[in-house]
């Protein structure tokens, strides 16, 4: 699976802007699924799931990664071709579709994160001792709000992905089967909003 796929066709944007397909992509980012498994998961007919799978496959967003025979029937397992998607410069004239696609994918990420939080083990949120030092915390939960120039926001994004790449390199030998390894789920979102939602920034804005 590629780390990132650059979208070059308008039809790819349209395919991902559909809420159901965006939700299906969240599942297919995690692991391969058959049409039957997705049908059971979403409680939808196989015909409807098959239609949406074909739309995603036609637009080269998913692919068949393996086939298995069960009771004389060949089962096809589909998975996302990449962990993330970004539009090419050629798609910039379709800003409305880019925005809707990004919104749907972020919404599904938020829903998936909520589901993972609810199913996480109790000790995931256990504090062994009170501390103001973040390095001693067993989990991270924080919300931030900044008034920033776009160039500074983009600089932060670049540093964020560099940090995640560094963390990936550090942990690549930490296999889940190792007795000292634990599995951590990281979900991050950052985007522009119209009005501040936190009181401290509201006050600052009113004083200006």
From TrEMBL:
Sequence ranges assigned to domain HTH arsR-type in this UniProt record: 11-97
One Pfam family matching this protein: HTH_5
Keyword list, A-Z: DNA-binding
GO molecular function terms noted in the UniProt entry: DNA binding; DNA-binding transcription factor activity
Segments passing through the bilayer: none
Gene3D superfamilies, per database record: Winged helix-like DNA-binding domain superfamily/Winged helix DNA-binding domain
Keyword DNA-binding found: yes
PANTHER family associated with the record: SLL0088 PROTEIN (PTHR38600:SF2), TRANSCRIPTIONAL REGULATORY PROTEIN (PTHR38600)
Name assigned to this protein: ArsR family transcriptional regulator
Native source species: Peribacillus loiseleuriae
């Amino acid at each position: 699976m590629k780390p990132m796929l650059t979208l070059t066709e308008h039809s790819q944007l349209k395919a991902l802007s559909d809420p159901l397909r965006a939700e299906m992509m969240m599942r297919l980012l995690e692991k391969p699924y058959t049409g039957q498994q997705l049908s059971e998961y979403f409680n939808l007919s196989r015909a409807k799931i098959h239609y949406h799978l074909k739309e995603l496959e036609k637009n080269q967003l998913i692919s068949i990664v393996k086939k298995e025979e069960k009771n004389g029937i060949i089962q096809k397992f589909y998975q996302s071709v990449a962990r993330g998607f970004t539009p090419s410069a050629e798609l910039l004239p379709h800003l409305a579709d880019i925005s809707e696609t990004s919104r749907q994918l972020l919404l599904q990420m938020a829903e998936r994160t909520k589901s993972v939080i609810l199913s996480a083990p109790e000790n995931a949120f256990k504090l062994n001792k009170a501390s103001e030092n973040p390095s001693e915390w067993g989990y991270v939960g924080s919300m931030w709000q900044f008034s920033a120039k776009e160039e500074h926001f983009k600089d932060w994004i670049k540093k964020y992905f560099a940090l995640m790449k560094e963390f990936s390199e550090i942990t690549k030998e930490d296999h889940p089967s190792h007795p000292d390894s634990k599995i951590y789920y990281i979900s991050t979102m950052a985007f522009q909003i119209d009005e501040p939602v936190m009181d401290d920034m509201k006050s600052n804005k009113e004083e200006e």
